[in-house]
Amino acid sequence: xxxxxxxxxxxxxxxxxxxxxxxxxxxxxxxxxxxxxxxxxxxxxxxxxxxxxxxxxxxxxxxxxxxxxxxxxxxxxxxxxxxxxxxxxxxxxxxxxxxxxxxxxxxxxxxxxxxxxxxxxxxxxxxxxxxxxxxxxxxxxxxxxxxxxxxxxxxxxxxxxxxxxxxxxxxxxxxxxxxxxxxxxxxxxxxxxxxxxxxxxxxxxxxxxxxxxxxxxxxxxxxxxxxxxxxxxxxxxxxxxxxxxxxxxxxxxxxxx
Length: 257
Prior knowledge:
About 10% of the residues lie in helices and about 35% in strands. The protein is mainly β.
């Protein structure tokens, strides 16, 4: 007699949401269909670069142990269920979600060489949000940045970007030198990628990070003073007193006009 269930196909994995948290200084290079700057143009992929400025990047899943990431290309590859019809994020929606608090460079220039770790997101995300806002100006110091391209810096910048894929069945982090377990917790898996270990940065370190990102994108951008802490009292420019996240990220790609 044949055992019950023998030869049956394996049970389908229960879909879950994948949230990728990028904490710290990154350069996001976004691509759209036909390289269009129309607000309705859909994103087709994202590449992310860390600047070379003595950062030590790491990754953790669902708040577990943090593992070091080696300096080369990685690929974060989510898998959707069979028959899934994706609705990629549009350029206009991305601008609405993060544009107010994210420097955005309109260019198709090649990326400079001063990057340490790169990540490829081959599939366009379903959503993209940002968090942890820090002031870029103070009542006495004025703007923290100077240079011809300082106008791209908003008055408050996000120190975390969350790229979201909805209802995937599995994920692969290609290039990771550790075992990955993307099992969801209450229907969500959080992958945290930080561009620096958690310490209070020196002014020199912050300037190296700003110089490296500017060099990667061909920007005339100089950090003159530290950006503010995430939590601020009204009207008070506080010195940085928390660990990690010395600077914000920068977007490079088409921008809806």
